[in-house]
């Protein structure tokens, strides 16, 4: 039996569907049973390609030695050994080991975080199992599963199609064919090449239009994509623009420090200093001046930021998008499900009266079994006794691709599919019309004409009493044009153009109350191939209520306060959009009048006046996917950094073109999720705002880390350089510089780089997307802070020698400890200007306090641990020495905080 099934699956495109179902023992109406699934998973395993190997720890460790810092340290060690300075040589060797271990553990943390983040974004598939439609993770598919396909899906396995309605597939990932391929169900020859297997869809391709059903015939590495994956399973590691800029900055600093090292050697030689000591000092300064942790901290900060976003339901698909978030100036957002609850409920049905031009309004209510459901002017209605109401509800149930869970309209998490279609199923279920029962008992579906975004119409054909009932739903303005009659299908009441205009007015009135409106229609035909949209019977309007989400108005206000414009872009009618827009406060820039999508032409076709008006617009309605693209281009040409939300397959170009493409995790198609930079697991607008805040915080944290690191390193260079120029003894020794480098460049700096930030980030305008990591003002700040610290250290050194009459070794200890503690206290100078002196994002960062305690302990050990103090040439500074260290090390902090209060080194908008 197993061998027979294996042969069936070898070339399934050449086998009729009926034979395939029979051979695999599958019921096309019920799908696999739970027992079949367990058996299939045990035999075939999970439906996944062989995963690219995670970066081994050994490789990460070895890569630590491919580092310019390590080469400089090795050169210093060799120099020491060659001149017989064994203690210094061994100490530098230990410094190499410590530097390597610190780099290794920091990098492995970042790498493992990034690898774990990839598991958060998983593809799902809709399957028929045990007679019910279920949504499962694609890894759980097994051969024999019945998969339901619709526009926007990523195909999760190789499928043999047995139903296809206008099904188009993008197979460029497999065949290189850029045009969408039309699919059918007819059996084809055995030896047809992959590109000509028109009744098959393959793993990794995407559905561009239409709908269909298929049976899984291959999973995992047995799929066509799996066979290719054997050749191309190595993925290129993504490097974000921020990391590239940091790497370039590091390279520039290397050359600068080499020049400085050369200057120190020449100056020392001219001053008659010990050549070996000067060379070692120059190398130590070069090591100290280069912030080797730049790329690692960037990766770690981005990874931790992505984790925080993931915890707030924002999954980042691309590392590079994290930094772009912080520069976002425009958010173009959908209405339904993002600004609103996405809990569609049918609340109003307007029906044509039989034999007159009047209308009947029916209120729909009832959220539990005990409430009344359909009423008209306080009179309860039974749908079975009201033909027009019954047919409208039946049409909504038939022309539908969603499914209810347990057929219970009152259960939380109502069903699987589009929220509007679920709402129609719920309304029908309240009248006792359950789609699965209707299809099985009396009206099996025989043809579907998939929803077309251009016409905004969808139709299904159902076998009924020897003929075919056509059920149609769509936008009222489009559907009414297709109608020749009104009322129930058995009547022949003509509908005039004046009546159509009257119904459009009714549509607008419903929309003005905030309802989303669909029209339903139908007819009886004799052949399945007839045009579904010709001479229809208009059955009525159905109004859906979707309330604004709680907190969205506050989130929009927060965006506006942060200098970010929010623009609603919806497919709904203008009046509906205007109503929601007013409620949410989107009419502050312009009037609350919505711009129609047809105004969004290509920017090259617009006049300057049109551009000006559209750039001010906050509400756009009846917007087609291609018009979203024009809106993005319009804002980008004006220098905007645009975030755009989307959920459909046709949104993919706009999501790719936007600076930040944002897909909906719940209602979004897999194609949209693949094209986006960020996926919202909860579809909430508030999540976008949180993500932008995190993006700003990450960039600021990395910038703060660099500012802190370079200002401290510059101070070391200044101390040695000024001492040499003055002909004074060296205030710092090579091993002391290396020891301080390992303390100050790692723990406090890393703590700054992974800070969470605070709400103040959203109280200022977005940074310029082209702004460098360090502006001219930051470079001035680095020089100023470095000078401030170096002057404090040199003053302490001079006071120890001249005032306290200390010997050289004790004076050097004083200068080293003053520098070390000054650099530790300097971390508090990194707070944002204008923030509270005692309560700010620095003082609230627990990692910083931990780093300060650890570093203070390591500095005390440098003085009092016998072996370490010998290596570092440290001695007990005495009570007067400690008072001098404490007082002088606090001077840069006191002066820095004073200057911050008077618009000193940094401006809030740049730090």
Secondary structure layout:
Blueprint: H1 2-10, H2 17-24, H3 34-44, H4 57-63, H5 68-82, H6 86-118, E1 124-129, E2 132-137, E3 146-150, E4 158-170, H7 172-175, E5 181-182, E6 200-201, E7 206-218, H8 224-229, H9 241-270, H10 275-289, H11 294-311, E8 314-316, H12 320-325, E9 330-333, E10 345-352, E11 359-364, E12 374-376, E13 379-380, H13 387-398, E14 403-404, E15 415-416, H14 419-430, H15 435-441, E16 445-452, E17 457-464, E18 467-474, H16 476-479, E19 483-486, E20 493-494, H17 497-512, E21 516-525, E22 536-545, H18 552-561, E23 565-569, H19 574-584, E24 595-596, H20 608-616, E25 619-621, H21 625-637, E26 642-646, H22 652-657, E27 660-664, H23 670-675, E28 678-680, H24 685-725, H25 734-744, H26 747-753, H27 776-803, H28 808-825, H29 846-864, H30 866-872, H31 878-900
Parallel strand pairs: 9-23, 9-26, 19-22, 23-25, 24-25, 26-27, 27-28
Antiparallel strand pairs: 1-2, 1-3, 3-7, 4-5, 4-6, 4-7, 8-28, 10-11, 10-22, 11-12, 12-13, 14-15, 16-17, 17-18, 18-21, 19-20, 21-22
Helix pairs in contact: 5-6, 5-10, 6-11, 6-25, 9-10, 9-11, 9-24, 10-25, 11-24, 13-14, 17-19, 24-26, 24-27, 25-28, 26-29, 27-28, 27-31, 28-29, 28-31, 29-30
For the structure shown, list the relevant keywords.
911 residues, alpha+beta, Calcium-transporting ATPase, cytoplasmic transduction domain A, Calcium-transporting ATPase, transmembrane domain, Rossmann fold, 4 domains, 8-stranded mixed beta sheet, 31 helices
Distance from N terminus to C terminus (CA atoms, Å) equals: 70 Å
Percent range of helical residues: 40-55%
Our count of domains comes out at 4
Q: Could you name the ranges where pLDDT drops below 50 across 5 or more consecutive residues? A: 231-238, 906-911
Find the CATH topology of the largest domain.
Calcium-transporting ATPase, transmembrane domain
Mean of all residue-level pLDDT scores: 81
Question: Which band does the percent of strand residues land in?
Answer: 15-25%
Tally of individual helices: 31
CATH architecture classification name of the largest domain: Up-down Bundle
What is the makeup of the main sheet?
Answer: 11 strands, mixed
């Amino acid at each position: 039996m197993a061998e027979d099934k294996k042969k069936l699956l070898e070339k399934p495109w050449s086998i009729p569907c009926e034979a395939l179902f029979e051979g695999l023992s599958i019921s096309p109406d019920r799908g696999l049973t739970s027992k079949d699934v367990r058996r299939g998973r045990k035999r075939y395993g999970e439906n996944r390609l062989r995963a690219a190997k995670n970066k081994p720890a050994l490789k990460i460790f070895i890569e630590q030695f491919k580092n310019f810092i390590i080469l400089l340290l090795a050169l210093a060690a060799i120099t020491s050994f060659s001149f017989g300075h064994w203690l210094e040589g061994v100490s530098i060797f230990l410094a190499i080991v410590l530097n390597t271990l610190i780099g290794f553990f920091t990098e492995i943390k970042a790498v493992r975080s990034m690898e774990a983040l990839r598991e958060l974004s998983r593809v799902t598939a809709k399957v028929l199992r045990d007679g019910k439609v279920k949504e499962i993770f694609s890894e759980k598919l097994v051969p024999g599963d019945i998969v339901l396909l619709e526009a926007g899906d990523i195909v999760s396995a190789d499928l043999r199609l047995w139903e296809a309605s206008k099904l188009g597939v993008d197979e460029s990932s497999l065949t290189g064919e850029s045009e969408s391929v039309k699919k059918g169900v007819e059996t084809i020859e055995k030896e047809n090449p992959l590109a000509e297997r028109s009744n098959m869809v393959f793993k990794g391709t995407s559905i561009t239009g239409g709908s269909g059903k298929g049976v899984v015939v291959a999973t995992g590495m047995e799929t066509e994509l799996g066979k290719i994956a054997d050749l191309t399973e190595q993925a290129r590691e993504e490097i974000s623009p921020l990391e590239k800029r940091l790497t370039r900055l590091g390279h520039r600093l290397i050359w600068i420090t080499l020049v400085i090292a050369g200057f120190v050697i020449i100056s020392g030689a001219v001053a008659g200093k010990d050549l070996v000591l000067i060379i070692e000092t120059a190398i130590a300064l070069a090591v100290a001046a280069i912030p080797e942790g730049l790329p690692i901290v960037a990766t770690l900060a981005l990874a931790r930021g992505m984790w925080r976003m993931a915890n707030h339901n924002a999954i980042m698909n691309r590392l590079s998008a994290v930094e772009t978030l912080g520069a976002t100036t425009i958010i173009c957002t959908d209405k339904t499900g993002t600004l609103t609850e996405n809990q569609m409920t049918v609340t109003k049905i307007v029906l044509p009266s039989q034999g007159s031009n009047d209308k009947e309004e029916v209120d729909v209510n009832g959220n539990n079994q005990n409430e009344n459901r359909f009423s008209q002017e306080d009179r309860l209605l039974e749908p079975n006794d009201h033909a027009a109401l019954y047919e409208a509800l039946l049409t909504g149930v038939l022309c539908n691709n969603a499914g209810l869970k347990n057929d219970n309209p009152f259960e939380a998490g109502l069903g699987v599919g589009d929220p509007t279609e679920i709402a129609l199923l719920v309304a029908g279920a309240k009248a006792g019309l359950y789609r699965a029962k209707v299809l099985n008992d009396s009206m099996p579906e025989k043809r579907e004409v998939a929803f077309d975004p251009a016409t905004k119409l969808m139709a299904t054909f159902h076998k009924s009493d020897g003929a075919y009932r056509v059920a149609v739903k769509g936008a009222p303005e489009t559907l009414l044009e297709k109608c020749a009659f009104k009322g129930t299908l058995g009547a022949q009441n003509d509908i005039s153009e004046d009546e159509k205009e009257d119904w459009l007015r009714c549509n607008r009135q419903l929309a003005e109350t905030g309802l989303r409106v669909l029209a339903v229609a139908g007819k009886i035909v004799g052949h399945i191939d007839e045009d579904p949209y010709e001479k229809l019977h208009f059955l009525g309007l159905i109004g859906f209520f979707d309330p604004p989400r709680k907190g969205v108005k506050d989130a929009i206000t927060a965006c506006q306060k942060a200098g970010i414009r929010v623009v609603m872009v919806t497919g709904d009618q203008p009046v509906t959009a205007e109503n929601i827009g007013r409620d949410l406060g989107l009419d502050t820039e312009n009037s609350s009048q919505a711009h129609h999508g047809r105004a969004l032409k290509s920017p090259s076709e617009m006049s300057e006046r049109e551009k000006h008006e559209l750039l001010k617009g906050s509400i756009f309605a009846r917007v087609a996917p291609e018009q979203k693209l024009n809106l993005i281009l319009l804002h980008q040409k004006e220098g905007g950094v645009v975030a755009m939300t989307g959920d459909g397959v046709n949104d993919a170009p706009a999501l790719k073109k936007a600076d930040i493409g944002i897909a909906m995790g719940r209602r979004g198609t897999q194609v949209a999720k693949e094209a986006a930079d960020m996926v919202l697991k909860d579809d909430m607008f508030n999540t976008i705002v949180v993500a932008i805040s995190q993006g700003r915080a990450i960039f600021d944290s990395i910038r703060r880390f660099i500012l802190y690191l370079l200002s401290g390193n510059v101070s070391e260079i200044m101390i040695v350089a000024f001492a040499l120029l003055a002909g004074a003894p060296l205030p710092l020794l090579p091993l002391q510089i290396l020891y301080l480098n390992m303390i100050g460049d790692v723990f406090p700096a890393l703590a700054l780089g992974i800070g969470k930030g605070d709400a103040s980030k959203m109280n200022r305008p977005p940074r310029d997307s082209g702004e460098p990591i360090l502006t001219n003002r930051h470079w001035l700040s680095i020089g100023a802070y470095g000078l401030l610290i170096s002057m404090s250290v040199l003053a302490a050194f001079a006071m120890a020698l001249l005032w306290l009459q200390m010997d050289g070794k004790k004076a050097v200890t004083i200068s080293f400890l003053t520098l070390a503690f000054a650099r530790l206290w300097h971390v508090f100078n990194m707070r944002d200007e204008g923030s509270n002196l005692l309560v700010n994002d620095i003082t609230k960062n627990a990692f910083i306090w931990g780093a300060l305690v650890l570093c203070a302990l390591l500095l005390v050990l440098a003085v009092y641990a016998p072996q370490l103090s010998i290596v570092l040439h440290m001695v007990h500074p005495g009570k007067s020495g400690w008072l001098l260290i404490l007082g002088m090390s606090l001077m840069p902090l006191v002066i820095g905080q004073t200057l911050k209060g008077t618009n000193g080194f940094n401006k809030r908008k740049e730090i």
